[in-house]
Specification:
The chain has helices at about 15, 50-60, 60-75, 75-80, 125-190, 195-230, 255-265, 265-285, 325-390, 395-430, and strands spanning about 5-10, 25-30, 45, 85-95, 110-120, 240, 290-300, 305-315. The protein is α+β, with helices and mostly antiparallel strands and about 425 residues long. The two termini are about 15 Å apart.
Length: about 425
């Protein structure tokens, strides 16, 4: 946020009174939120989002498992395209002693047979195409896991950022309220304010402590979530998140629809499965054709010339009504299922794109409202009430109310900033382009 509204509240010694002269002047500064500028006193050692995403992609076991699955299926493609192993058999006919023949018996022999099964032309190629499409589908599954991990890391990071900001702001404002409470207490001692001012300020401090406890719990939860995605111990320390500027939505809704139609991993996977099932239908139809087996036999007979023989064997699909025909019907139904699945994915995809787009646009408008109107106006209201309090025209309760309002809006700004970036992060896996920068 470029515009910064500063409310400088100074209570001089004359406000407290001469009897409280030991109390030093208190200067309280309330700033409107700015995502691009680190808060004063923040830890300079912070972690950036890019480093976390790179580490998660390298270490996350879910993504690595999906990648290994792709590599496993890739090694399967050449296997199914290769002919079956040839078969070699050795035998004899004659005496029971191995390889012993009977003299004078022309049927006695030693024999070696070699055979090779030959699938009907085109079957091996179709099997290879099926395995190749399964590999491509698995690659899109891996890409989906990778994109989802990136989106999850970004969402967890923005949650961590918002929770950290809430803790930082609440702690800072709690300290300021404690100073204001001490001022009210000093004024009460000299009879310049009512006791209810002191009591109300102490109640507000207790409420801030309650909120601080909740924000700290949220911070620890988001930190554990980030550590889990990074494959770290959930209790491992994590540096504070680095500041960032809100991204710009550089695409219209129609452009996002087009990108989603072209880049969505689910649609790409379903398309590969359609192609895979079409090849499976073609392969089932080819099973109506016989496979062949060719063989060569060499026989050695005692006291007679050696013999050579060749064989050609083919299976006859006489049970096609209950085997080949049903196999074709099965694969045809699988193809129809894949086509319907793709249509369903496209419908769900467009809804998801529009949902996240509307969330992003809504948060974008709220961010502008917070930065350009609500936070500046509430800060001016606090400034005005502080000035009026110094001259005695408003009471201390009005100051506390305005102070709490500024705190609420400042925390809400960073929460809405996180929601905005999270909506863009959730859009990225759907459209295949980076939107959070």
């Amino acid at each position: 946020m470029k515009r910064k509204v500063q409310v400088l509240i100074t209570f001089a010694c004359f406000v407290i009174g001469e009897s409280a002269g030991q109390q030093p002047p208190v200067s309280v500064t309330v700033q409107s939120p700015s995502a691009g500028t680190p808060a004063q006193g923040a830890d300079q050692s912070s972690v950036g989002l890019d480093a976390l995403v790179a580490e998660a992609l390298q270490k996350n076991p879910g993504v690595q498992s999906a990648l290994r699955q792709v590599e496993a299926l890739r090694h399967r493609v050449p296997q199914v395209r290769t002919l079956p192993d040839p078969q070699v058999s050795v035998g004899w006919a004659g005496n029971i002693t191995p390889f012993s023949v009977q003299r004078g018996d022309p049927s006695s022999n030693r024999a070696v047979t070699v055979s090779q099964m030959l699938p009907y032309p085109g079957k091996l190629k179709l099997q290879g195409e099926i395995a190749d499409r399964e590999t491509q589908a698995a690659w899109w599954d891996y890409d989906a896991a990778r994109r989802k991990l990136v989106a999850d890391v970004k969402s967890a990071y923005y949650d961590y950022f918002a929770a950290s900001k809430a803790v930082e702001i609440t702690q800072k404002d709690k300290d300021l309220l404690q100073k204001l409470s001490s001022i009210a207490d000093a004024r009460y001692r000299v009879g310049k304010t009512a006791q209810q001012d002191v009591l109300r300020s102490q109640v507000e401090i207790s409420l801030l402590q309650q909120r601080l406890t909740v924000f700290e719990q949220q911070q620890k939860t988001t930190q554990a979530r980030l550590n889990t995605l990074l494959f770290h111990d959930p209790e491992a320390p994590l540096p504070s998140p680095a500041s960032f500027e809100p991204a710009k939505i550089g695409h219209s809704l129609d452009e996002l629809y087009t990108l989603a139609r072209e880049q969505d991993t689910g649609l790409q996977r379903e398309q590969r499965m359609i192609e895979r099932n079409q090849y499976a239908v073609n392969l089932a139809q080819k099973d109506y054709r016989p496979d062949f087996s060719v063989g060569y036999m060499y026989q050695q007979r005692p006291d007679m010339p050696d013999m050579h023989g060749f064989t050609v064997t083919a299976n006859i699909p006489i049970f096609y009504r209950t085997r080949q025909r049903e196999a074709v019907r099965e694969q045809t139904e699988q193809l129809g299922s894949a086509q319907r699945s793709k249509e369903n994915r496209q419908t769900e995809l467009f809804f998801a794109v529009k949902q996240q787009y509307l969330l992003a646009k809504s948060s974008e408008q709220l961010l502008k409202l917070y930065s350009q109107a609500i936070v500046p106006q509430s800060s001016l209201a606090l400034e005005s009430s502080m000035a009026s309090y110094q001259v005695g025209t408003v009471d201390f309760l009005t100051i506390l109310t305005n102070f709490t309002v500024v705190l609420d809006y400042e925390v809400s700004y960073y929460r809405e900033l996180a929601n905005y970036q999270m909506a863009l992060a959730n859009l990225e896996p759907l459209v295949g382009v980076e939107l959070t920068k």
